[in-house]
Design brief:
The strands form three sheets. Strands 1-9-8-7-4-2-3 form a seven-stranded mixed β-sheet, with helices on both faces. Strands 10-11-12 form a three-stranded antiparallel β-sheet. By secondary structure, it is of the alpha/beta class. It folds into two domains: about 240 residues, Aspartate Aminotransferase, domain 2; about 110 residues, Alpha-Beta Complex (Aspartate Aminotransferase, domain 1). It starts with a helix and ends with a helix.
Amino acid sequence: MAVQRLVDTGTGLLGTSHRQAPVRNLVGRIREGLAELFQIPDGYEVVLGNGGATCFWDVAAFSLIARRSQHLVFGEFSSKFAQEVTKASHLGSPEVIETAPGTHPDPRPSPDVDCYCMTHNETSTGVMMPIERLGTKDQLVLVDATSAAGGIEVDISAADAYYFSPQKAFASEGGLWVAILSPAAQERAKTLCSSERWVPGFFDLAAALDNSRLDQTVNTPSVATLFLLAEQVHWMLDHGGLSWAAGRSRRSAEQVYAWAEAASFASPFVSRPEDRSPVVATVDLDPDVSAAEVSRVLRRNGIVDTDSYRKLGRNQLRLGLFPAVDPEDVRQLTAAITWVVDHLRHDDAN
């Protein structure tokens, strides 16, 4: 439906300069909608920029981390942020707290860091962690929320930068980052970007903040991405907001995990129920059932993207349970997987 509404805009939006009213009104609609969806506290602001959440790691390295950061690592994406900061010659070596995939570490108060870097939902492993504020007022909490934002409830006041790209729960496309910034994060960005530190223009968070206040981005954005994001945000608001959207994902997750626990050939990868993601479910299959073959059969029948994260190297399925996915479709998906496994086993037996 959102794609059709994009088509229906005709020539009135696509191809329009991002400095002109049609696109600026769209950015304003996004900023206002996200502020309402997340019930952001006074002084917080919604900021947009190009490049996706991966790019925001570099934005943070230049514009938010003053000297040294602490990183909680428990999967591919949380590790990549830590690796990126490690390579930044203007910063001290980060403090890294790592646990095995399928679990998550807990942050530790440290007087030696000025930023705590967390991941709300590790997309590669299907692990969710609680977001908490710790340390002093001069220590920022940065939260990668790419697969969590819009699908998991959160108290934004626990973070100074809650950032994400919109291709997951917001059913849009990649190449854009959104950050909800506290007053402390805004001040840190202004201080660092106006200091003697060299900050590439593409990673200048203070400039992104100034442009967002004008309902625009520094560089030319994908207008289609903005449109789809705006549509999804207001679809969520029209149906009850973040609690409603997160509730849809929870219902889908409950079905998947109950099915995996009951199936003779499957089990949830994440052992602690409280750590299991409601938006990305990872399910291990028995060794005699090839997850890759199950995914291939599903794909041939129009059910795509059930593969595990390749670097994790497990015989498992990874299922997206974002709010745009109807929980009834998820129920039918689990039935389809069971059907495929039963027939693969029957074929092997013969």
